[in-house]
Amino acid sequence: MAIVLGCIADDYTGASDLANTLKKAGLRTVQTIGVPAAAYRLPDVDAVVLSLKSRSIDPAKAVALSLDAYAWLKGQGAEHILFKICSTFDSTDRGNIGPVMDALLEKTGDDCIIVTPAFPETKRTVYMGNLFVGHVPLNESPLKDHPLNPMHDSNLVRVLQRQSKHQIGLAELATVTKGAAALRARLKELGRDGVRAAVADTVFDADLGPIGEVAAEARLSVGASGLGLGLAQAFVKRGKGGQSDAALARLGASAAACLAGSCSQATLGQVTAAEKIMPVFRLDPADLMSRRAAYLDEVSQWAADRLAKGPILIASTATPDRVRALQGQFGQAEIGHAIEQAMADLAERLVEKGVRRLVVAGGETSGAVVDRLGVPGFVVGPEIAAGVPVLGTSGYRHEMLMALKSGNFGGPDFFADALKLMA
Ligand code: ADP
Questions:
Q1: Is the CB of 410 under 6 A from ligand 1?
Q2: Is 407 in the pocket of ligand 1 (CB under 6 A)?
Q3: What is the dihedral of CA 384, 388, 390, 392, to 10 degrees?
Q4: How does pLDDT run across 255-267, given as a tens digit for each residue?
Q5: Per the CATH hierarchy, to which homologous superfamily does domain 5-237 belong?
Q6: What is the pLDDT of residues 192-243, one digit of tens each?
């Protein structure tokens, strides 16, 4: 079955967020890591989110990767392509939003497409083309000091104009709030004037309705999860998607393990709470640094001895004081990388020992684990906590259920909550 919506996401965590949003809005969704290999067989779903790491790379490379992704999605029959960018429009005057958009426009041939990074529910709004982060314009928000792409201009018409060879326009709030017909007419008018992309003002949740409806009529749009939500609602309204849930494997009888590499406040509490219900191994980073191979053997033996009896947790989680001390001793990047790779090693060994349900806490930690296991994609399942779904592996050599959470996500009993939904 052909998919209706194909998404090209410029980073991995943004892709997960979008995939989760699409699933909640009623589209059966798969998220893949990179452009799938030729052998990959897509399950029966309505939407695919292709996760690239193209936000901050050389613009020519970002264009090439995105065009590969586009070709793959069109090969799956995608009716509409959403180029998923950051909700804070992370980019520089060189790109990569403009160059990728231009290249995709050349493929789709659309007259005038919709661009909006807004998601009012998460306090990203656009008014008169200016992006607001909470109460302040983008150029007064913490994004002004971003290490890779400091944002010094909140006017997205200007920002995108500097990156694109096409004329950029504005669809004002007064038009958007009048509804789909008015917005459609405005885009036609802009298109006649030679404008190929219009930043659409988006202030209220309800604005995503007409924006999604009109965006879905073109072959391409550019935005974040808010636009994804609007598009998903438009497709479901047209009777596409939403028929049934994508089936996840039932793996309740298989071994389960949790890995925590996040030191966030939330994860600190979650690891302590987990100690009441499962055996927890607290990794000693100093031991890891001094005798890595032997230490990892001991830790995986500790896990192997317990897996038959129930879930286990291995955590490097430590308090800010302890983390600072370790960083001072070994170097911040060095210790971070070493622990991430240790977690990836342990994940590999746990899977070898039969673990088929795996919960990982920490954004970078999750990335390292997924890369090491070589999971090509995930079917998005039910939500454990806001922004954290159960994932079923797709195209991987084992059927597995996973949960990948960034540090601060989830309630105090996150590990128990996750395992309950993975039963
Ligand atoms: P979060 O989602 O909370 O940011 P990440 O996994 O993205 O979590 O980042 C946590 C970083 O801290 C990783 O690089 C991890 O390896 C590192 N780390 C984990 N435990 C420790 C520790 N005890 N001391 C120092 N660094 C640690």
A1: no
A2: yes
A3: 180
A4: 999 999 999 999 9
A5: Putative sugar-binding, N-terminal domain (3.40.50.10840)
A6: 999 999 999 999 999 999 999 999 999 999 999 999 999 999 999 998 886 6
